[in-house]
Structures are given as structure tokens and as C-alpha cells.
TrEMBL record:
Residues 93-435 form the Protein kinase domain. It comes from the Eukaryota. This is ATP binding. InterPro entries: Kinase-like_dom_sf, Prot_kinase_dom, Ser/Thr_kinase_AS. One of its GO terms (molecular function) is protein serine/threonine kinase activity. It comes from Didymella rabiei.
Length: 435
């Protein structure tokens, strides 16, 4: 649920992994550095994960007990150890600012005291609540299922011992922020150059491509007969990194690397025997149709979320029914509705869950969008190509016809790569003619 693990330009493309490892080398750490996880036996990782769960369960028990704790009790010793680890880390790293907040956790940006170019993100439970701690424990377990992948945000490190409460997850910092902040920065850059505040078609193809690969990985490549659903696919959970070879440091890259993040709600599909089925647990503005939100949630919900995210990228609005159209529909059904002027009521969870996501084509004229597709806000929009519009529309089809991530990876991605190259060549040709 976190918005971004963003980083200032002075921390560009540095993961600071070795610094975090050096800091904690004198303490008992629970999870290995991501690049070493391939060579570690799965049973070791499972045992480590169980240790975090056990530690957190102990913390919960202690939290619910009366406060008559002896001076040298086990709980006191553990707290002392957690404070020692916390203090040791802060000898090497300085807290800069908050990067993002969500229901489960809060993420801080830290900078190395020795090398200011090194930064790392640290995610800890929000408000020291038991539910938040459980959420982060689950996220660590889920992250241990993932091998390094070009389009998945991998954790650098994690520990159960952290003051005032654990676990703490150490993550690489993505210098261009999340998809929302990247889009805002791109449009601002366009405006400064007196160009339309319009996201490049190359960028949208690249986003489509990278996220299709990320979803194919968690849907199809994590285990034999086992698939996983991200269950909270949205722009705020897609982080953006400068690609290697980008030399124009003063400008945003048109083809950055997009990475899927926040795996706290990763859900197994089909539901294993003996486990309770999990329904959709993501953000209402990017939720699939109501029937698809009922347990068990399926991988197709992520595909719908990808379509909704591409609409946001193209149009710059949440992919939901407009407030005006929602009120008219509720009036016709003789159902209650919020006041159009009451912004606070519209932001309540009750109404957010009742406003549906809606398909809007991205290859038609703005006049068509306004007249036929419920577009009621001014946007700086130019139609995208019919090919992009076609593949984008496939993501919004009924569940029986919606393409799987494996189909997108095998059939659509080669086409996407060709389209990106065609657009680049066409630009070069036009530039030569104009020169």
C-alpha cells in the first residue's frame, strides 16, 4: 500500500546493499542478501522465516501480558538486543525522510554517513500495531518466495530484531519514485519544454512490457502447479529506475525500468487445501469487477489492474466512473449517493468501494472520450496508436477472454518491442526530413 520508495538524484542508482550487511554483521540477521539466496537451501530460508514469525508471536504475547516484567527478563534482553541493532545501524546510516506510508508500514530513506551517494529504504511496522507487524512478517515471507527478477523489487535484507518493534525490511531505493511521481515529473518536463503534457507512447509500451513480464513471473514461474496473485496492482506499487546507459542526467528517461513492488498481499492460487480462500485485497480504484473480488481471487485480477494502470498512465486520471455519472446512476436506482461538493465523503472507504472502474479507450479523439466514455476532467491528451489501443483493450475483457500473463509474454511482448523500435525509427526519419 505504500506510495513510493523514491530517492533524490544524489542517490541515483545506488543500492547500498553491502553497507547494510556490514552494519548488521555483528548481529543475528534472519534473511540473506538477495543475490545469495539462490545458493541457500530452501529449508534454511523456511526456518529463517519461521523464526521471524515466532519472534513476532512472542512480541504479541508480551504486549498483551500485564506490565510486571522483571528487570532482567527475556523480554528485556530481547529489547536490549533490538536497541543495540538499531543503534549500530544508525552509526553508519542517517535517516533522511519518510518515503511512503501505508496501512501496514512506513518507509524511511537512509543515507550512508561515509558515502552520501549510497541510500537505502527501511520499511517498519506502522504505529507499532500487531496487525502491521503481522503484515510485514507476511511480506518478508512472500519476498523469500521470489528470486531476483529485472522487474520485481527485491529486498536487500530483513531482520526480526528492530527497535521499537520488528521486523524491518531493507529495500533498494528507486531514484525516479513510483509511477505516479514519474508521470508528474514527465509532464512537468514536457511543460517546461513547451510540449504537450502527454506521456510518450514508447513509455506506455515499455510499462506494458515490463509489467507483463513481472506478472508472468509471479503467475507462472514461481513453482510447479502454484501461481500467485499480487492482489494490489496499481501505479503506487510500480517503482521506476533509470536504465543503464542513460547519459542525459538532467532529463527523465523515456524508457525507464519499471519494477513491481509491495508483496504483502501476495496470494496463492489455487487456494491450497486446508487454507481459507482470499478475496481481492487491493485498492478500490484499481479493483476488478465485483464478482472477481469474491474469494478466491484469481490472477486475472492483476491483468485487470494492469489495464487500469495503463489507463491512468495515458489519461492521468483514476480509471473509475466519474462522480457525476455515479450520482446519476444511483439516482436512477433510487439509491443513496454522496453530495458532489462533499470531498471528504467521496474519499471514504464506503464510497470508494462502490464506485466501479471503467474502461476508456486510449486511441480515440478526446471529443469521443468526453461524449461516449464518461470523461469529465480537462486533460492534455493525444490519441495513441490503434495497436496500443487494441492490446490495452484486451486487458479489460471479461474474465473468460482476458489474456493470461503467459500469453502476453509469449505473443504480445515481441510485438511491443517491434512497436517501440518502429516509433524510434519514424522519429529519426522525421528529424532528418526537418533538418
Amino acid at each position: 500500500m505504500l506510495k513510493a520508495y523514491a530517492e533524490p538524484k544524489r542517490c541515483r542508482s545506488i543500492m547500498a546493499q553491502e553497507g547494510a550487511t556490514q552494519t548488521m554483521s555483528t548481529q543475528t540477521t534472519i534473511y540473506p542478501i538477495c543475490e545469495d539466496r539462490r545458493s541457500i537451501d530452501k529449508e534454511v530460508t523456511k526456518h529463517a522465516t519461521d523464526s521471524v514469525l515466532k519472534d513476532t508471536s512472542k512480541q504479541q504475547v508480551e504486549a498483551n501480558k500485564p506490565s510486571k516484567i522483571p528487570l532482567f527478563s527475556k523480554a528485556t534482553k530481547k529489547e536490549t538486543k533490538d536497541i543495540t541493532l538499531y543503534n549500530l545501524f544508525h552509526k553508519h546510516w542517517i535517516q533522511e525522510r519518510v518515503l511512503g506510508e501505508g496501512g501496514d508500514g512506513i518507509v524511511y530513506l537512509y543515507q550512508s554517513r561515509k558515502q552520501q551517494s549510497k541510500c537505502i529504504a527501511v520499511k517498519i511496522p506502522r504505529n507499532n500495531s500487531i496487525s502491521a507487524r503481522n503484515g510485514l512478517v507476511q511480506e518478508v515471507k512472500n519476498l523469500c518466495l521470489l528470486e531476483p527478477h529485472d522487474h520485481i523489487l527485491d529486498m536487500c535484507h530483513a531482520t526480526g530484531g528492530w527497535w521499537p518493534c520488528g521486523p524491518a525490511i531493507f529495500l533498494p531505493v528507486c531514484e525516479l519514485g513510483d509511477l505516479i511521481s514519474y508521470r508528474e515529473s514527465w509532464c512537468a518536463q514536457q511543460a517546461s519544454e513547451r510540449k504537450p503534457k502527454h506521456v510518450s507512447e514508447v513509455t506506455i509500451w515499455k510499462l506494458f512490457r515490463d509489467m507483463a513480464l513481472a506478472l508472468n513471473y509471479i503467475h507462472h514461474e514461481l513453482g510447479s502447479g502454484i501461481r500467485y496473485v499480487h492482489n494490489d496492482f496499481k501505479p503506487a506499487n510500480i517503482l521506476v529506475v533509470t536504465p543503464p546507459g542513460h547519459t542525459e542526467h538532467e532529463t527523465l528517461p523515456e524508457e525507464p525500468i519499471f519494477k513491481l513492488s509491495d508483496f504483502a498481499r501476495l496470494t496463492t492460487w489455487p487456494t491450497p487445501t486446508g487454507q481459507r480462500a482470499q478475496g481481492f485485497d487491493g485498492t478500490p480504484e484499481y479493483a476488478p469487477p465485483k464478482l472477481e473480488q469474491i474469494a478466491p481471487v484469481q490472477p486475472s485480477a492483476d491483468i485487470w489492474g494492469l489495464g487500469a494502470t495503463l489507463q491512468f498512465m495515458a489519461l492521468g486520471i483514476h480509471p473509475i466512473q466519474s462522480q457525476e455519472a455515479f450520482v446519476l446512476e444511483r439516482k436512477a436506482q433510487a439509491k443513496p449517493y454522496p453530495d458532489l461538493e462533499d470531498k471528504r465523503e467521496w474519499m471514504s472507504e464506503y464510497w470508494r468501494q462502490r464506485i466501479p472502474t471503467v474502461f476508456r479507450p486510449i486511441h480515440v479523439a478526446k471529443a469521443v472520450l468526453c461524449k461516449e466514455h464518461d470523461l469529465h476532467v480537462p486533460i492534455d491528451y493525444q490519441p495513441y496508436s490503434a495497436r496500443l489501443g487494441y492490446w490495452y483493450a484486451q486487458l479489460w475483457k471479461p474474465i473468460a477472454y482476458r489474456p493470461k500473463a503467459s500469453k502476453l509474454a509469449s505473443l504480445a511482448i515481441p510485438h511491443m518491442d517491434d512497436q517501440i523500435e518502429r516509433i524510434k525509427k519514424l522519429r529519426q526519419t522525421r528529424k532528418k526530413i526537418s533538418d
